[in-house]
Specification:
The complex is a heterodimer of chains A (203) and B (178). Chain A has 203 residues and is an alpha+beta fold. Chain A contains five helices and eight strands. The two termini of chain B are 14 Å apart. Classes of the chains: A alpha+beta (203), B alpha+beta (178).
């Protein structure tokens, strides 16, 4: 399937699915940190593989990231990305401390950010799965603190073997004090995208 | 020595990367050639491998940002420099056309990391990228002089044409020269 050839109706269906998934994820995150978290309307982009490392801005931006593969009826990847300061802000919110308390990443901080990402992803996938009547499970999450470009590249290399472009659905989570600024990426594998569109009735 | 020393100081002073005049930025899945005083740079190598070929006589060289070891079964006509199997010979040809024959070239590679540790699905791609690049160099008879590959961290590399020094920058190790 050529991803660049998605019709307007198909793109709309994917956008709508993403909005519902993101809405559930934002609710889960708000409950988790006990603090209102808002979302921007998710964007859906069809990106040339070589350009994917640039979607987060500078390729060398230091970010905390959690990567999960999708298992079950849908193959693909979910990636949680937040700039280093924002990842640390999430840690502080989870510990119920003032933002700015956590200064550096240790095993505990990594575990907390991974935990947050896992809950976001689970909420997102549950909503998408219900909508499309698919059973989608997340794999064990992996954490990395490094350059945004290298992280996005690692996540898309496998798609690069099969396709020229990747469908990238991006949701921004943020709060009023702008201490949290995080992104969730949903990257369905090319074959699975077809399955998803079929289940949504827009093939 | 003086030249490499001042380059290092400049790179540290402006942080990442040093994007002065004469910096040739190589994107993902791209190849490029340049000569002194230009500097070849590619950013944020994760599982990708950065290959540099340097010609000490002309003080010129080339760089490839390799994303995958080899083509999958599907016919990939466009963007073939994404793959080690086609990017390495293409870079050698490009340098030969520019006046640097294969027999003068020496190679260095960096990257090929497993960004999400050994248990993530894509963990082996970095190692396979590095292995395929080494194999291509071996087949072409180009000596591999140095490498900084593997691990779990991202790298940005800069090739300085006057010395052939490859600067490898990462958040984990800071600045390394190979």
């Amino acid at each position: 399937m050529i991803l660049g050839n998605l019709s307007e109706i198909q793109l709309d269906a994917l956008r709508e699915t993403g909005s519902i998934g993101a809405g559930h994820a934002a609710t889960a995150l708000s409950q988790l940190v006990g603090h209102g978290i808002e979302i921007e309307v998710p964007t859906l982009d069809v990106v040339e593989i070589g350009q994917v490392p640039l979607v987060f801005g500078g390729p060398e931006t230091l970010v905390g990231a959690v990567y999960l593969r999708l298992l079950g009826d849908l193959g693909g990847s979910m990636l949680f990305v937040a700039p280093r300061s924002s990842s640390l802000a999430l840690v502080d919110l989870m510990r119920n401390r003032p933002v700015g308390t956590a200064k550096s990443f240790g095993a505990d901080e990594e575990a907390l950010v991974t935990h947050v990402a896992q809950i976001l992803v689970s909420a997102y996938l549950a909503a998408v799965g219900r909508l499309a009547d698919l059973n989608i499970l997340p794999s064990k999450p992996s954490f990395a603190l490094d350059m945004a470009g290298a992280i996005l590249e690692a996540v898309t290399t496998e798609i690069g073997m099969l396709a020229e472009t990747a469908v990238l659905q991006r949701t921004r989570f943020f709060d009023d004090e702008t201490s949290v600024d995080a992104y969730l990426f949903f990257l369905p594998d090319p074959d699975s995208l077809e399955v998803l569109l079929g289940r949504l009735g827009v093939v | 020595m003086g030249a490499s020393g001042s380059c290092r100081a400049a790179a540290v002073a402006v942080g990442m990367p040093h994007m002065g005049e004469g910096t040739v930025l190589v994107g993902v899945g791209e190849i490029a050639v340049a000569e002194h005083p230009q500097v070849l740079v590619t950013q944020a190598l994760g599982s990708c491998v950065g290959l540099v070929l340097w010609d000490p006589i002309r003080r010129a060289g080339g760089m490839a940002h390799i994303m995958l070891p080899a083509h999958a079964d599907t016919a990939m006509v466009g963007h073939r420099f994404r793959f080690a199997t086609s990017a390495v010979p293409a870079l050698v040809d490009m340098l030969a056309d520019a006046g640097s024959p294969k027999r003068r070239l020496v190679a260095k590679i960096a990257g090929g990391a497993a960004m999400f540790g050994a248990d993530a699905g894509s963990a082996s791609i970095g190692a396979r990228n590095a292995a395929q690049t080494r194999l291509e160099l071996h087949d072409l008879g180009i000596p591999l002089r140095a490498e900084d590959t593997g691990g779990g961290h991202a790298r940005t590399i800069e090739l300085h044409m006057d010395t052939g020094i490859l600067l490898v920058r990462s958040y984990v190790f800071g600045l390394r020269e190979i």
